[in-house]
Specification:
Pfam families: CO_deh_flav_C (PF03450), FAD_binding_5 (PF00941)
Protein name: FAD binding domain-containing protein
Number of domains: 3
Structural class: alpha+beta
InterPro entries: CO_DH_flav_C, CO_DH_flav_C_dom_sf, Diverse_Substr_Oxidored, FAD-bd_PCMH, FAD-bd_PCMH-like_sf, FAD-bd_PCMH_sub1, FAD-bd_PCMH_sub2, Mopterin_DH_FAD-bd
Keywords: FAD, Flavoprotein, Oxidoreductase
Number of helices: 10
Radius of gyration: 20 Å
Order of helices and strands: EHEHEEEHHHHEEHEEEEEEEHHH
Length: about 300
C-alpha cells in the first residue's frame, strides 16, 4: 500500500510548529524519527492531512543535565543513550540497559525518546521508565507551555494527555544518586518482537535499609505501569545479604515483591504467544531479577567509589 495524500511542512521554530498544529480543521501528525508513523501511514491505518516535520528546529535537538534533572529534547535519538556514560550516574546505566531493547541500530539512529512518549505504545521501554521515575513531559501549544507528570500523561494505548495542537518539546527525568542501583530486563519472543514484558527498576539503600524503590512495568497493562504495591512491600525493608547468582528464592523480599507486582500492579492483556497468566508470571520473575541486579549494581558502584576496582 501507499500512504494517502498529505501536505508536508517543515517549521524552523517551535512557534511555527505549534502554528501548523493549531489548524484544528486538519488532521496533523508530527514527525521526528517517524519509525512508527511512517509504517502506519504506509498501511493507511493513519491518514494525516498534514505532516509537520520538526527536524529543522535546532532548539529541540539537545540534552542537558542540571538542577538534578536530565532534560531530553524532542530530537534526541535513541542511540544517544547507548553508552552508560552519556548520562551521569545510575540513570545512565538504566537508560543504556533499556535502549538496547528498542528495535535495532538503524531504528535507534533515527527514532527518539520523545517520539515514544508521543506514540504511547504499551510496550514502550521509555514510557515505563518515565512513569517509574516520575518524569515530566513538556508541552507547548497555542496557549503557552505546560508540564504533565508522566503518570498522568498516559491514558491508554496510543492515548495521551497531549492536545492535538500541542507539541512535546522535551521530557525531564530525575538524576539518580550514587546510593542507587539500576536495572532493566526485557523478555520477548524473538529479537525483533516487541516486549512481551519488561521491567525497569531503581533501588536506593540508606544504612542497609531500602529507602526508595521504583519499578516500571512494560506491556503489563494498557499503558505503562508503576508497580506501587510492590514498591510498598520493599520500602523500609533491610536489604540483607544478596542471593548469589541470578536466582531469587521464593521467600526473599525481592521474590515477594515480584508476586505482588504480578498480582496487584499488573493488568496484562493477552496477546499471541503470551496469555495474561503467562505475562503475570514473567512480571513476577523479572521484577525479582531486576531488583537483584539493581542491588548488585549499587554494590559495584559503591565498591568503585571506595577504591575497590576488582
Amino acid at each position: 500500500m501507499k500512504p494517502a495524500a498529505f501536505d508536508y511542512t517543515v517549521p524552523r521554530t517551535v512557534a511555527e510548529a505549534v502554528e501548523a498544529l493549531g489548524d484544528t480543521e486538519r488532521r496533523a501528525q508530527v514527525i521526528a524519527g517517524g519509525q512508527s508513523l511512517i509504517l502506519e501511514m504506509h498501511l493507511q491505518r493513519i491518514r494525516p492531512e498534514l505532516v509537520v516535520d520538526i527536524n529543522r528546529i535546532p532548539e529541540l535537538d539537545g540534552m542537558s543535565a542540571e538542577g538534578g534533572e536530565l532534560r531530553v529534547g524532542a530530537l534526541v535519538r535513541h542511540a544517544a543513550f547507548e553508552s552508560p556514560d552519556a548520562v551521569p550516574g545510575p540513570l545512565g546505566t538504566l537508560l543504556a540497559q533499556a535502549v538496547v531493547n528498542i528495535a535495532h541500530p538503524p531504528i535507534r539512529s533515527r527514532g527518539t525518546m520523545v517520539g515514544s512518549y508521543g506514540w504511547a505504545h504499551p510496550a514502550s521501554e521509555w514510557c515505563a521508565v518515565g512513569v517509574a521515575l516520575d518524569a515530566t513531559v513538556e508541552l507547548t501549544g497555542p496557549d503557552g507551555d505546560r508540564s504533565v507528570a508522566a503518570g498522568d500523561y498516559f491514558l491508554g494505548p496510543f492515548r495521551t494527555a497531549r492536545l492535538p495542537q500541542e507539541l512535546i518539546t522535551a521530557v525531564r527525568l530525575p538524576l539518580l544518586g550514587e546510593d542507587t542501583g539500576a536495572s532493566f530486563v526485557e523478555h520477548r519472543r524473538t529479537h525483533f518482537c516487541f516486549a512481551q514484558v519488561a521491567v525497569g527498576t531503581t533501588l536506593t539503600v540508606d544504612d542497609g535499609v531500602i529507602s526508595d524503590v521504583r519499578i516500571g512495568l512494560v506491556n503489563s497493562a494498557d499503558r505503562p505501569v508503576r508497580a506501587r504495591a510492590a514498591e510498598d512491600v520493599l520500602r523500609g525493608t533491610e536489604l540483607g545479604p544478596l542471593p548469589a547468582g541470578h536466582r531469587v528464592h521464593d521467600d526473599h523480599p525481592f521474590a515477594r515483591a515480584g508476586r505482588v507486582a504480578a498480582g496487584q500492579d499488573a493488568a496484562p492483556l493477552p496477546e499471541p504467544f503470551a496469555d495474561a497468566d503467562y505475562k503475570r508470571h514473567i512480571v513476577s520473575v523479572l521484577v525479582a531479577r531486576t531488583l537483584l541486579e539493581a542491588a548488585n549494581d549499587r554494590r559495584a558502584r559503591l565498591a568503585v567509589r571506595e577504591g575497590d576496582h576488582r
